[in-house]
Amino acid sequence: MYIIKQNIEVESKITFCSYEELISKFEPDNLFIIDKKIDELYFFDKYPNNKIVLVSSEKIKTQDSLFTLLNDFAKFNVNKSTKIWCIGGGTLSDLVGFSCSIYKRGIPFNLVPTTLLSMADASIGGKNAINFGNVKNVVGTIYLPKNVFIDLQFLISLDYDIFLSGLMEIIKISILFSQDLWSHILEHKDKIKNRDFNALEYIITSAIKLKIDVVNKDLMDFNKRKYLNLGHTFGHSFELNEDIPHGIAVAKGLFLALKISEKYFNFPEKGILEIINLFEFFGVDFSGITISKIDFDNLKNDKKNLNEKITLVLLKDFFQPTLLELKENEIRSSLQNMP
């Protein structure tokens, strides 16, 4: 079990469990908010009268979805003693976590992540949000789930692009903070690609430990936690405008961050090739990236920005992240050799 503490009174417990252990925790008066595909594939027809089924995608992170869910809370007479289960991926937990954080000034909820990205990243650390004005995650809170229960069996049914999305976030955190995890991924990439459970459990557990270490030191995202946004500044633009999975968009954004890191910090070209080759081994296609696809108006609304400049997470070398503020023309100049 891993624990994230927000303060002396509030903590989030993260536990690996089996399917049988998970359903043993369900009770007839609980409220289940479930991804539609998970509901159909698995088991969540046990309490049909206490269930809200949603089609998870970035499209549900809207004001309309938020107020619909808050109305559902009122309909189900939700209060601070109601046991709520959010069962799905990162977009669902974004919506549910935000809704729970503001309803009656905060109601507890339990999270069952069902995608690789949500297991290793989105469920850890309490960030939640909806999109607003074509800007990703600009309205939200930091609000920890009471419990996170991880069952690796859910990974069997993932479409490969959704599996790949989560894998990119795990590789990202290894590049930021861990020589051991990076080397392990390189050594066991075939097993990981084939979804070997032992290989996946190792990299998921390692990524969780790394993120918990960061979050416990900087829960409110003032310092070190900002480094976790490596690839996200550009990635959010790709995600919204190309409608591609989050982690794949982050990989494309990381590609651009590496190019800029090379110019400003002499990040080694050999290292860039090593990272890009690994991404391509798993199936990321970088061929369509052009400057014209970068939405600079979107970048200027990024949450990390403190002035008119755009704050980027870059790399001085492997495992040496840093922040750099650049103007739009400076970014364009750094990427001038791209089409």
Architecture overview:
The chain is of the alpha/beta class and 339 residues long. It has 14 helices and eleven strands. The chain has a seven-stranded mixed sheet. A two-stranded antiparallel ribbon has the order 7-8. Strands 10-11 form a two-stranded antiparallel sheet.
CATH architecture of the largest domain: Up-down Bundle
CATH homologous superfamily designation of the largest domain? Dehydroquinate synthase-like - alpha domain
> At the first level of CATH, what is the class of the largest domain?
Mainly Alpha
Number of helices: 14
Bulk shape: globular
The rounded Rg comes to 20 Å
H-E order: EEHEHEHEHEHEEEHHHHHHHHEEH
- Biggest sheet details: 7 strands, mixed
Helix content, binned percent: 40-55%
Count the domains.
Answer: 2
Q: What fraction of the residues are assigned to beta strands by DSSP?
A: 15-25%
Strand order of the largest sheet: 1-2-9-6-5-3-4
**Euclidean distance between termini CA atoms:** 48 Å
